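Budget justification aside, the reviewers requested a transparent look at the raw inputs and outputs of the sequence design task funded under Objective 1. We therefore reproduce one unedited record. The lines immediately below are the structure tokens for a 185-residue chain.
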């Protein structure tokens, strides 16, 4: 309000008086965007049917340049297994990190068995799985991943919706929009 009024008026103590007026105005406080719960409930993405059927991508930019001149990373993540690929970066250190959403590590969700590391290198039974048995075990891991993700999404939605209010509009409803000139909206 101050910024709107200062274009046309000025008086000593103007900013303080306007702030006091707005703080005491019941209507101003009731409709102030910061005092209202965000509109609309959380809309979840559908769970992928199989590994790498659906992906998410992001870019990490503004990093210091490497010797080859690279200053960004393209991150590609499988939405089912949470397996991530970082182009121009090694990702082997991320393979054994437990993903709470899936209930297993990324490598295990992707390949159907735990990643062998120096700690458990002497487990030969993992490498004996071939053919139909490997397919069966991988299919079980995908089903388990889907179950765990559904549970995590459901929990996330219930928590998020507690902080939000559902939106319902009818044809010809009049609505007020909060616009931001800085964002071009």
């Amino acid at each position: 309000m101050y910024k709107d009024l200062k274009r046309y008026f000025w008086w000593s103590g103007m900013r303080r008086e306007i702030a006091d007026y707005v703080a005491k105005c019941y209507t101003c406080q009731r409709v102030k965007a910061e005092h209202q719960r965000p509109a609309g409930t959380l809309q979840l993405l559908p769970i992928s049917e199989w590994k790498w059927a659906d992906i998410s991508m992001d870019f990490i930019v503004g990093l210091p340049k490497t010797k080859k001149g690279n200053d960004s990373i393209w991150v590609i993540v499988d939405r089912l297994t949470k397996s991530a690929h970082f182009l121009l970066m090694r990702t082997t250190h991320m393979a054994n990190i437990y993903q709470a959403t899936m209930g297993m590590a990324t490598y295990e969700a992707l390949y159907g068995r735990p990643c062998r590391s120096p700690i458990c290198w002497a487990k030969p039974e993992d490498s004996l799985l071939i053919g139909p048995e490997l397919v069966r075990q991988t299919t079980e891991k995908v089903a388990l991943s889907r179950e765990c993700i559904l549970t995590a999404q459901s929990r996330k939605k219930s928590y998020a919706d507690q902080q939000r209010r559902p939106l319902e509009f009818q044809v010809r409803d009049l609505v007020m929009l909060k616009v931001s000139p800085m964002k071009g909206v």
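The chain has a mean pLDDT of 78. The first strand starts at residue 55 and ends at 60. Computational costs for records of this kind are itemized in the attached budget.
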